[in-house]
Automatic annotation (TrEMBL), chain A:
CDD domains: LolA_like. This is Outer membrane lipoprotein-sorting protein. It comes from the Bacteria. Residues 70-249 form the Uncharacterized protein TP-0789 domain. Coiled coil: none annotated. Keywords: Lipoprotein, Signal. Pfam families: LolA_like (PF17131).
UniProtKB/TrEMBL annotation, chain B:
The lineage of its organism: Bacteria, Pseudomonadati, Spirochaetota, Spirochaetia, Spirochaetales. It comes from the Bacteria. It comes from Oceanispirochaeta crateris. It holds the Pfam family FtsX. GO terms for biological process: lipoprotein localization to outer membrane. It is found in: Cell membrane. Residues 18-239 form the MacB-like periplasmic core domain. It is a multi-pass membrane protein. Residues 273-402 form the ABC3 transporter permease C-terminal domain. The chain crosses the membrane at residues 20-39, 270-295, 316-344, 374-392. Belongs to the ABC-4 integral membrane protein family. LolC/E subfamily. This is ABC transporter permease.
Length: 250, 409
């Protein structure tokens, strides 16, 4: 019979051995996600593009100009005729809607954030998810898979708090470029809510920008929204109070 | 002595006994008259509310709208409502037209949000369709065409905490399947006779709602009222075949649209059955009284039998007694029911408290409607049921031997 201290040592060694692959995979998953975030992070960015929503009633196109700074601040101004002048401002804490015929700016909160943005499959809540993924999610490398013929890491992300739109996500990250190829968004119960696929990526020196992607709301029948960025400018100069309420009604 | 006058005199020989039977019959007939009046009032009220606020007598919509209604398909519209309206007025039986846009909206007031239903109407022509005058507007005035103004149901105004002159911003889905918001100034607060309108609805000028929801020269539906004599289903059929009527429009009469009125019609049958039970209940009193009469009057029956009155004549005597009581009691019961109904027709029955939060197409103050047809029916029905019931125990009289009857009591 082993003495008690030897028993403890055996348990400790076995436990450590069992945990090593998990620790390694966790580190690996974190570094993948970190790299993925870094690749898509810019000091500031200006882009123009369009949202093409297809559903049972047909196709609808909305055009926009977008500005962003860091991972939390962004401003979208819609330019298509039916939505001309409407703006969405996102700061680190809040989301505001500006409409030319409304005398007050609408601050979206709670359940209202789940509403569809311009009738698309993208909700306002989807816009609140910044690039600082590791602050918000626990990540775990599940393995590797081929997606459309390309090698991808499969990473499961579990929300650390309730302040994120989706409690769980599975991300397929390209091994070669660290760009997400596909993301599946799940409810807490594990129901698939949305699926995003990256269709095109724009190489900006040492950074990468997703310039074309499609998002499908799995709770709607035959509905998808394609987002296309037509022009992109990086490191644009923006006034210090650009992402503020004062700027919404210019 | 004739049996008829003998029976009539017998009523007063034990007046308390007769009064008991008469009261049972009178209460039953009065209750049924009141029940039918109330039901008639509910039917009338629901018909008016549906035709005025909800479906019209006939409703014209885009053919696809109803199919996708739960998805709020604001882009499925009725084009050129004015031109269409002029065409519709040419059809015999059409008395009023209301082009409308109904839309779900989220109201933003400061940091608070409220869900509501917006209704865009033409206030200049809406007077022909529904009463939006002084009786409805509690404070302020009706919104003006071309102005970003709204008329709020008083409960919605209370919930939001606003009054005349205040502003609120509303957000909704447009006909181009986008989102838009507009700020409206509250021009008036209304107390609608229809409770659901007070809790969730606001009215705004049609032209501003068309602008806000990106619906130029379009509406969501056109509601049509018809003359009293005209049949909505027949006029709807004429409209479907009317020259120039677009095949992309759905034309439906109110009974085909809303099932709540059918519920009332069904309830009417159920209440008819309930009325029968009322009478059966009343009949047990009559039955009991008649049996008591027979036992109490054994000696009398024996004497009459000994004097040569046949069993058949004795049954007729007791039947006639019951018939007289039934006629008098039914008449009094029906008359009392009519008097109470006439009073309630003027005062109304205030159901405000009991209808709190109930989503049904009935007004908060209900006015019973006296139906002469059903009242006359109740009278004859009461007389027949009460008289026939008396036959059951009085048949026993036929089998009583005079000697046996004289020996008893």
């Amino acid at each position: 019979m082993l003495p008690l201290y030897k028993k403890h040592t055996v348990v400790l060694i076995l436990g450590t051995l069992l945990l090593i692959p998990r620790i390694l995979s966790a580190q690996s998953a974190e570094s993948i996600i970190q790299k993925m975030d870094e690749l898509q992070s810019f000091d500031s960015l200006k882009s123009t593009g369009s949202l093409i929503t297809k559903d049972r009633f047909g196709t609808k196109t909305v055009t926009f100009i977008s500005w962003s700074e860091g991972s939390d601040s962004s401003l979208i101004e819609f330019t298509s005729a039916a939505e001309a002048g409407q703006k969405i401002l996102r700061t680190s804490e809040e989301l505001f809607l500006y409409f030319p015929d409304a005398e007050e700016v609408i601050r979206l909160q709670g359940a209202a954030l789940r509403q569809s943005m311009m009738g698309s499959d993208i909700s306002y809540e989807d816009m609140t998810d910044g690039k600082d993924t590791l602050d918000k999610y626990e990540v775990e490398l599940l393995g590797e898979e081929l997606v459309e013929g390309q090698n991808c890491y499969v990473i499961e992300m579990t929300a650390k708090s309730r302040r994120v739109p989706y409690p769980k996500q599975t991300v397929w990250v390209l091994k070669e470029s660290f760009i997400p190829q596909k993301v599946e968004y799940f409810s807490k119960s594990g129901k698939l809510l949305k699926e995003m696929r990256v269709l095109e990526v724009m190489d900006m020196d040492d950074k990468m920008i997703i310039s074309r992607m499609v998002l499908e709301d799995k709770l709607k029948k035959n509905s998808s929204t394609e987002m296309i960025l037509e022009t992109i400018e990086v490191d644009v100069s923006l006034p210090s109070n650009f992402f503020s309420l004062d700027q919404l009604s210019w | 002595m004739k049996l008829g006058s003998l029976a009539f005199r017998n009523i007063f020989r034990n007046f308390r006994r007769s009064l008991l039977s008469a009261t049972a019959i009178a209460v039953a007939s009065m209750s049924i008259v009141l029940l039918y009046s109330l039901l008639g009032g509910m039917e009338q009220d629901m018909k008016y509310n549906l035709q005025t606020y909800s479906t019209g007598a006939i409703r014209i919509r885009n053919l696809e709208f109803t199919k996708y209604e739960r998805l709020n398909p604001m882009h499925l519209t009725v084009e050129n409502p004015e031109t269409l309206g002029q065409t519709l007025y040419k059809i015999n039986g059409v008395s009023a037209i209301s082009p409308r846009i109904g839309f779900p909206a989220r109201i933003y007031k400061g940091d608070a949000t409220f869900n509501a239903m917006g209704l865009g109407v033409n206030f200049e022509t809406e007077g022909n369709f529904q009463d939006l005058g002084d009786a409805v507007v509690q404070t302020g005035r009706l919104p003006r065409e071309g102005q970003n103004e709204a008329l709020l149901g008083y409960k919605l105004a209370q919930e939001i905490g606003v009054t005349v002159g205040d502003k609120l911003t509303i957000l909704s889905t447009t006909a181009v399947r986008g989102t838009n918001a507009i700020t409206l100034t509250i021009s008036g607060v209304a107390v609608f006779p229809f409770p659901a309108l007070n809790e969730k609805t606001f009215y705004a000028p049609l032209d501003r709602v068309q602008y806000f929801l990106k619906m130029p020269n379009q509406v969501q539906e056109i509601l049509i009222k018809t003359n009293e004599a005209a049949s909505a289903s027949q006029i709807a059929e004429i409209m479907r075949g009317w020259p120039g009527m677009s095949a992309e429009l759905e034309i439906m009469d109110w009974k085909s649209i809303d099932s709540s009125y059918s519920m009332i019609e069904m309830a009417s049958t159920v209440y008819g059955i309930m009325a029968l039970f009322f009478f059966l209940l009343g009949s047990t009193v009559i039955l009991n009284t008649t049996i008591m009469i027979i036992y109490e009057r054994m000696k009398e029956i024996g004497t009459l039998g000994a004097m040569g009155m046949s069993g058949r004549q004795l049954v007729t005597l007791f039947f006639l007694e019951s018939l007289y009581i039934s006629i008098i009691a039914s008449f009094l019961g029906v008359a009392l029911g009519m008097i109470i109904t006439v009073i309630l027709q003027k005062t109304g029955i205030d159901l405000t408290a009991s209808m709190e939060g109930v989503d049904i197409d009935i007004s908060s103050v209900l006015y019973p409607q006296l139906s002469l047809k059903s009242t006359v029916l109740v009278f004859f029905y009461s007389v027949i049921v009460a008289s026939i019931t008396s036959l059951i125990p009085s048949r026993r009289v036929r089998r009583i031997e005079p000697v046996e009857a004289l020996r008893s009591v």
